[in-house]
Give the backbone structure.
Amino acid sequence: MKKISFKDDYSTGAHPRILQAIHRANKGIEESYGNDSYSKKAEKKIKKIFACENSSVHFVSSGTQANLLVISSALKPYESVIAAHTGHIHLHETGAIEATGHKINTIETKDGKLSPALIQKILDAHHTPPHMVKPKMVYISNATELGTVYTLSELENLSLFCRQNHLYLYLDGARLGNALTTNNDIKASDICKLTDAFYIGGTKNGGMFGEAIVIKNKQINENFEYLMKQKGALIAKSRYLGAQFEEFFHTNLYFELAKRANTQAKKLLDKLKPLNVKFDTINQTNQIFPILPSSVVRQLTKDFDFHIWEKINEDLLKIRLVTSWNTTDEEIDILIDKIDNYLKS
Amino acid sequence: MKKISFKDDYSTGAHPRILQAIHRANKGIEESYGNDSYSKKAEKKIKKIFACENSSVHFVSSGTQANLLVISSALKPYESVIAAHTGHIHLHETGAIEATGHKINTIETKDGKLSPALIQKILDAHHTPPHMVKPKMVYISNATELGTVYTLSELENLSLFCRQNHLYLYLDGARLGNALTTNNDIKASDICKLTDAFYIGGTKNGGMFGEAIVIKNKQINENFEYLMKQKGALIAKSRYLGAQFEEFFHTNLYFELAKRANTQAKKLLDKLKPLNVKFDTINQTNQIFPILPSSVVRQLTKDFDFHIWEKINEDLLKIRLVTSWNTTDEEIDILIDKIDNYLKS
Amino acid sequence: MKKISFKDDYSTGAHPRILQAIHRANKGIEESYGNDSYSKKAEKKIKKIFACENSSVHFVSSGTQANLLVISSALKPYESVIAAHTGHIHLHETGAIEATGHKINTIETKDGKLSPALIQKILDAHHTPPHMVKPKMVYISNATELGTVYTLSELENLSLFCRQNHLYLYLDGARLGNALTTNNDIKASDICKLTDAFYIGGTKNGGMFGEAIVIKNKQINENFEYLMKQKGALIAKSRYLGAQFEEFFHTNLYFELAKRANTQAKKLLDKLKPLNVKFDTINQTNQIFPILPSSVVRQLTKDFDFHIWEKINEDLLKIRLVTSWNTTDEEIDILIDKIDNYLKS
Amino acid sequence: MKKISFKDDYSTGAHPRILQAIHRANKGIEESYGNDSYSKKAEKKIKKIFACENSSVHFVSSGTQANLLVISSALKPYESVIAAHTGHIHLHETGAIEATGHKINTIETKDGKLSPALIQKILDAHHTPPHMVKPKMVYISNATELGTVYTLSELENLSLFCRQNHLYLYLDGARLGNALTTNNDIKASDICKLTDAFYIGGTKNGGMFGEAIVIKNKQINENFEYLMKQKGALIAKSRYLGAQFEEFFHTNLYFELAKRANTQAKKLLDKLKPLNVKFDTINQTNQIFPILPSSVVRQLTKDFDFHIWEKINEDLLKIRLVTSWNTTDEEIDILIDKIDNYLKS
């Protein structure tokens, strides 16, 4: 029997409506390389929902591509980007940013989130020009890689701090839907208002493939298509990227799918707590990180797919459980049942 | 009324069977980042058809990505790649190869094809180490960007020459289907036998998106997935790439679609010749380059989409007409009719 | 017996006065990394002589370094530099420019010189954004690698053309002294007035090591020291670079040495012509390119060091003879004598 | 009156014998770009003293150049280098390594030294190929940037660990002389035996400019001159680099100068301790880091040049005092006197 997967939010397929949109987009002749009518319609909807009429929207096929494009477009050769130690660009993109020539200044954090005070430390340390890189951009993820989210006031503070210090603020939104649909005070329009650029993740939220880069800052956007082409990110039949995002934002689909994933994670969380399972971070989105006895984790691996995140000590392991738009209540119940049994035995 | 397009082979959609394959692949949980079952099945079929059991196959989403990955994986920082002046990597990839740090040594050719004699000139000119780059790879396209193809003996000669001179031979197969289904003596198995690496174009032959890189040379393939991830080319839901190529090669679909495009170009050619239209290259695939009076070209732009390729003189223009898997006989007839009329008037 | 060298202008040592300047600069504590008093005095003198008060001056230790720094400082990732096919950056810097990520658009020329008409062809060919690089800089050498020089009106035309087309104009002055002291109408002040940046070669004109980069364009100069440090071009004990250039321009030494080299080349030329030796370019500086029978060249290699430049045909070779600040009349006479003898025998 | 400098070991000039060597090397015609007779003689002496007959020696003009050349020659695009957080390549080279495309994996250390246990942590964390870089080299400095040194057994352990884990070991010897002449059990021959590559710093030890790269590992050395040329590190008149190192190692000059600097630092240390000045690292070479009241530091800045290294708390500052080959006993006494006075007042 196949294992039940709580491994990630991209091992599952695309939502049926996304597939239907792809179908519809398949007909007839369309302009290529981002100039198709579907991409234009998707751009329009995104601009409206995120209240970013003066921004530009570009569709690419992976998050790593989005990150390396925006960051290398923004920075001069000697400029660097500041990121949390847990940031995707630092840990899990095989040196993609450094491969474009730029250093990442990393900051240790408990919850994956940056703050003005933490960033100030990096700035303070860079006091001997021209012998050190020049920090010029702040990279944050929302939701973060640890499942946490920024509150509106946290993001406002970061935004203000960045402007005051002539730093670009860039938000990796691989799981932006999850951040915007959890119990939080942040809205879609805040994202565009408070950052210079961000991307809206499609792949991890029920899309087939594709991320939508939104760039408000004109300097970062200058000749961006040239860079996309150079890095192999410009897709000939771009209609299939546009069609997915048009469908996402034509109705409320994008937010519904994200909310559904969040809801399932919340259920999981609510059922784990009575079992006395410990957590050391507060997760409000579709990733939770329970701490379990190693023996329990070992037994779980027989029936479930998930990541072991960290060894806490000889007896305890922290694991990562990820829910997605199509995680069922039944799957959650089977998991809870097993954990309950293993904890008792 | 919409114009009829002879502009390229990627402004049209995907073949219905490709879409059906995407649909089937959408179900259930699959491994990600190239480890899905569809990619594995597609790899198996490609290895069989191209007789390259000991090669590795990697799926990416654009031809520029394929080129920059293979070339930067093969070359050390001071090594260069030799290409025809018309080569896609030189002309139409916005400096993608140089952006990975490598020089392209270009050669002027009439027909877009390289030969040992032409390459020898480049080698001869690089005689003052370490003050010049070290040519280490030869890049060819088949079919070429000018619609021409290599004969088997031409490719054999190139292959032998490259081995003798310690040069890798890499073949850009954006239109490999077209090269393999025209009236020529070259077979799929020859491609793998005679090169170190090549890619099989999906996008321009009725696919949605996707190119299959095949690497025979172990040195070029070493840790190739790391490089893919670093350059943003590793797609999370890789099943959709795999599924397309499984469908292409499960039956004969890939070659049928390419042959169909070639056939339509041949029809066009055969109908243009009686009108006394001139050509200065021999095109055997789905791209033809008729030379027409400027006035005729001007009139054609009202009803047809196509590229003006080159200004021959004040009165004559060379245009590019491209057919694809779904170019109809009717579209060809309408074009021929118009040209005939304009030439007579 | 040691061969007499006409091989180049850097196999000989530094002028005694340069050595004395190094000696004087050795005393005491000095600021490092370009902030020493010698560099500041040298900068001042250069600004005066080249009439470039609003420019910035940076000292580096090789011409390749100067070129890669200026060009990579000026260009965005997708921008390219236009150069003659004979340009040092294209032929003899082992892909230094491409290693910073930039394409060189090359132009075939007979005499190593660019003109608006030649550059216009490159611009015309780059008509399909964003699929092609964006030419943004023109690189010229003066004197060129073929010993030719730009007249004032040629440089004025280039300068105007570049401004009109939003192209930076950068002049490689590895042999700038030679260009400014030959029989020509161009002055030191014209160089700064008509370009965005240039460098003044020290190594090939009697220096120990060192080139002075002069940047007029503020955009190219922005944070230039950061880039210097990053590329390993910022020397700790910069006083030794500054001291050489202070000495060069404190009196007229720089121009005297260059003129001396030119004069010796002219003598050589004047004595070769009566022997009926052929030339296919007009050389006004310290490099001349006589065409001689292969048998004569073979015999000359016994007693002289020089480069064989090009095979004209089975019987004729073009060689390169370079004079320097300390080439003696006697050395010239010995060479002429030998050539005369070999031609007669 | 000029301040007395304890700021660094490169604000002072070159040793007179180095200047004399430069003088002698100035005569006559010499091969260029590393092929001169002085470089060859220097290479020979270095190989003998460091017992590295099968290594290759290359002379460059800055330590940043040495580091970026060796590291980028050793690593494939997706490979990384491990370094202490205090490592020069991480902190003070303006992203030079990242600019060649490579990530630095940093490790926090108290004393600037790496150990197998610390490196193992980095290896353990890199467990999800191909989503993370592949650590392939370990970079250490000896003496470190904090003035500490490796003992023989520490270096042996590191060397063994690296070999077992297929990691290259590279030693930055900007202050190698200081490390080899302090009270320690490590010898010149150990350096070559235990590393894959290292460089011998000239600039900070009484040279004019220049570092000698020694590469034992053939893979790292392959076509190294090409890379040097490409990065602008190949000096035309290389005789001046060779001559300095020939002089350094012809007699015992290199080690005498380093020992002298160490001795002066030791004197300083010995005179500070009776004044109850605190230290939080043990420094055995020419850099010491006393912790002093802020008020004392403020007063010292009137008469002395030095770096403020770190703010310990509101009242205390850690400063860096560097001695060099020509720091006099008198200068030390003046400094000690002043500190004594300021502490008492």
